[in-house]
Design a protein that fits this description.
Layout: E1 3-4, H1 7-27, E2 33-39, H2 43-59, E3 62-68, H3 74-85, E4 92-95, H4 105-109, H5 123-130, H6 143-149, H7 162-173, E5 182-186, H8 193-202, E6 206-210, H9 217-221, E7 226-229, E8 247-250, E9 254-255, E10 261-262, H10 267-271, E11 276-277, H11 284-307
Parallel strand pairs: 1-11, 2-3, 2-4, 5-6, 5-7, 7-8, 8-11
Antiparallel strand pairs: 9-10
The structure holds 5,10-Methenyltetrahydrofolate.
Subunit structure: Homodimer.
Domain Tetrahydrofolate dehydrogenase/cyclohydrolase NAD(P)-binding: 161-303
Pathway: One-carbon metabolism; tetrahydrofolate interconversion
Length: 314
């Protein structure tokens, strides 16, 4: 039987770190602010919205809520983003995805100033990740790589998308070796599959990305040392599709009839062969929210550090 990669436990640890850092900033008169922008109605987004609000409350981050009707125009949303961009109280902006169909979501997301793009989905953030200009943030918790990475004192940097960032954190927290391993990712989305593949590359894994057009998925998943699935298809991965000892990360969220939440992995059959596995709920999801808060408090810290040569100490 596989051991569990416990996301709730790690998420709580990250949140208590964030809380301490928020308190330190509060002591020198700095409040940390996160804005949440929800357009229209969407069950998964509404749930993430609420979960993030309550995590903000727990850590002392001030949340600013923006709820707009689905009928709103692109320009009206851009005006709200403009307001948030120049609002000094706000350190980060999360725009809940997906946006309504008539809205060009790239147009909206690219309008967030990079300093506040704590979800890491804007073109600058995506480009910096692809060019390896922000991946050093993945090495902070990895003591062995600190020396190599600490050559960099960035004057400005971008944020990493919360879900894949959380996946790397969860693996490292459980001492899963990434370097030299074969990581197989299912899903090529901008928010999860693609950035996760870049992060695994930065960590020097051998990476294969599969998606809905991939022929004979099982042939590839059986080669994985680390298997990450982010498709939103319940039960896609069964025990027959993995080799013994695989580390399995379930990034899928499927709401079944009756409201039960499950991932992409058939937990019963896969957990018999895997060495480590994330449950859903209680796996990657809670860590995602904690990474969003961590990015937000980093944004506030950088703002202080880089925008004045004089630091006010508590
Ligand atoms: N710009 C953007 N970034 C996102 O990261 C984003 C988004 N839009 N839109 C909506 C989806 C959905 N999402 C979830 C994250 C965590 C849980 C989570 O923590 N779920 C709990 C289960 C909660 C329950 O049981 O009700 C868990 O996995 O344990 C759920 C959903 C992030 N999303």
């Amino acid at each position: 039987m596989a051991d569990i990669l416990d996301g709730r436990k790690l998420a709580d640890e990250i949140k208590s770190e964030v809380k301490k850092e928020v308190e330190t900033l509060n002591k020198i008169g700095i409040d940390v602010g996160l804005s949440l922008l929800l357009v229209g109605e969407n069950a998964a987004s509404a749930q993430y919205f609420q979960a993030t609000l309550s995590a903000c409350r727990k850590t002392g981050i001030t949340a600013y809520e923006f709820k707009l009707p689905a009928t709103i125009t692109v320009n009206e949303i851009l005006n709200v983003v403009n307001k948030i961009n120049i609002d000094e109280r706000i350190n980060g902006l999360l725009i809940l995805m997906p946006l309504p169909r008539h809205i060009n979501s790239r147009r909206i997301i690219n309008h967030i100033v990079p300093e506040k793009d704590i979800d890491g989905l804007g073109a600058i953030s995506v480009g910096r990740l692809a060019a390896d200009e922000s991946t050093f943030q993945l090495f902070k918790k990895d003591k062995r790589d600190v020396d190599q990475q600490s050559r960099f004192i960035p004057s400005i940097w971008s944020f990493l998308p919360c879900t894949p960032f959380g996946v790397i954190r969860l693996l490292e927290h459980h001492n899963v070796k990434i370097k030299g391993k074969h990581a197989v990712i299912i899903g090529k989305s901008l928010a999860v599959g693609k950035p996760l593949s870049t992060m695994f590359l930065a960590k020097e894994a051998t990476v294969t990305v599969c998606h809905k057009e991939t022929a004979d998925l099982g042939r590839i998943t059986r080669q994985a040392d680390i298997l990450c699935s982010a498709t939103g298809r319940a039960g896609l991965i069964t025990g027959r599709m993995i080799k013994k000892g695989t580390v399995v990360v379930d990034i899928g969220i499927n709401v079944l009839k009756g409201g039960t939440i499950t991932g992409d992995i058939d937990f019963n059959s896969v957990s018999k062969k895997a060495s480590l596995i994330t449950p859903v709920p209680g796996g990657v999801g809670p860590v995602t929210i904690s990474m969003l808060l961590e990015n937000t408090v980093r944004s506030a810290q950088r703002n202080e550090l880089f925008k004045s040569p004089l630091l006010v100490m508590g």
